[in-house]
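User: Second chain of the day. Same drill as before.
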Amino acid sequence: MVPVPRRHAAGLALVAALPRLLYTRRLMPEQPMPHNMPTAPLTVAVTGATGFVGRHTVRELASRGHTVRALVRDREKARTALAGVEHVPIQGDIFDSSARQTLLDGCDAVVHLVGIRKESAGGVTFQRMHVDATRAMLGSAIEAGVSRWVQMSALGVRADAPTKYQQTKWEGEQLVRSSDLDWTILRPSLIHGPDGEFLQLAKGWVRGKAPPYKFLPYFCCEKNRDTGGTGPGVAQPVYVRDVASAIAQSLASPDAIGEIYPLGGPDAYEWPVLLETLRDSIPGANLKLKPWGLNATLVSHVALGAQMLGLGGLLPFGPSDPIMGAEDNTCEIAKAQSHLGFAPEPFEQALESYAKQI
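Assistant: Same format as last time:
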């Protein structure tokens, strides 16, 4: 037997083992990485951190080991809203360049959650909060060398949308998409949770403690021009914890870069059915109250008139809300399920778990 030089032995061993390795690979194909695998901790700047979605997002990010730098205007509010959650509060306004610089110092990513449902006095407009604030944050993020960006938008936004809310959300998206950052955009349907504005409003309705007192209001639009019949919109409520999880998972998934994800729950409801479900689940509700549809166009004009007279604060909604509430607000979630492991909890199951906390 001819001896094999030591320098060639390793190579010959690899050649001999190659058929076995290839056979084993055919039997055991590469498996996709589980969505819940831990990722390297990041330093994440969060805007809108004390808002409804912001509170849950900060908690979710911190639970995954990330360092969260939260932009807050009011430290006392932040201390209450983010109680028990490890974070670094950065006090300041989003339009203050020095506050943005401090917030972004050393950050790897931005989660931009600033948004409003209705305009109010003092320059709180859709244009300023959805477009100008996004532009300002993008500029500062690029200057700070931040490369990753996650933006929360809304389902139904589009260039030709009938409301300022949707139009400006769309415009904010375009700013993000035209940037050089590695971006992800999430578009949720109606977000629910015990500490959310909608559930708090619905609590007053179903108990008969808030206007209109005598019925459960929803907005409807004309669906048949020939008969003049009206019909309710359809919503696909998604639990706030599932939205926060999707935001955090977007940072962990390379597949999420350059993607837009519609987010909704597993079930869709016409508004009368949704309101009846809330009435039947919230403790202390008046079970005799029935849903009643209001003409979206008419109510929108009323809200606009009130806003022009400086009385918009008397209404729990602005001119955009009735029009959007009459639209169907549903989506396909297959892409989010595939890329993010998105597995939303059914609305009624989640509602049952927190109804007593509302």
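The first strand starts at residue 43 and ends at 47.

User: Great, on to the next one.
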